Amino acid sequence: MNAMTAEAVETPAAPEKELPVRDRVQTQGRIFQAGRALLAEGGFQAFGVNAVARKAGCDKQLIYRYFGGLDGLVDAIGEDLAGWVMKHVPEDQGGRFLLTYGDLMERLAELYADALRADPLIRRILVWELSESSPHIARMADARAKGIAQWIERMRGSLTPPKGADTVALNAVVIAAVQQLVLAAETSGSFAGLPLKSQKDWARAVSAVARMARAAYA
């Protein structure tokens, strides 16, 4: 990948003696979490074999052994993120009845905003999607988009949008609004004069997006 440093393509040395199964699983887990944390902290520029090994507290050759190198580790992280929506966006109604398709998109806006604000790696991936282009980033973005579509399909039940509504475009605008507000909150703490620092600010912002969603499907 273009952003990876030279250490990312080092030729691996001869493999070491295989670890016991329990230690191997634990080591794989440490490498995976170290890679995920480094991506969240500094993106691909901070993502090299030596850096991952240091953070995981293991020999760098184990990254090649268990993941086939950095590309394999990125793919593993991407596969995990493919289920991000299912893991982090609850399939509940918040104690409310979803009577219309607009109610459904309002609920998605609320839950999606909470999930994005709680996950630094997803927020960084959103930034990458806007500023970089690579197969890995594209796969991560596609996986998240599919996850959102599946969430809507599972949650909507018998709810249908009004006749003639362009659900693809309208849903994309609602989702984009949430994502932009989350990123703006992290970088500047406001957007177009709307403060995004306190929980009260966020309640105001999400309420506006929710109102927009309801109006779009009135």
From TrEMBL:
Pfam families: TetR_N. This is AcrR family transcriptional regulator. Transmembrane segments: none annotated. The keyword DNA-binding applies. Keywords: DNA-binding, Transcription, Transcription regulation. It comes from Rhizobium aquaticum. Residues 48-67 bind DNA. Residues 25-85 form the HTH tetR-type domain. Gene3D superfamilies: Tetracycline Repressor, domain 2 (1.10.357.10). Coiled coil: none annotated. The keyword Transcription applies.
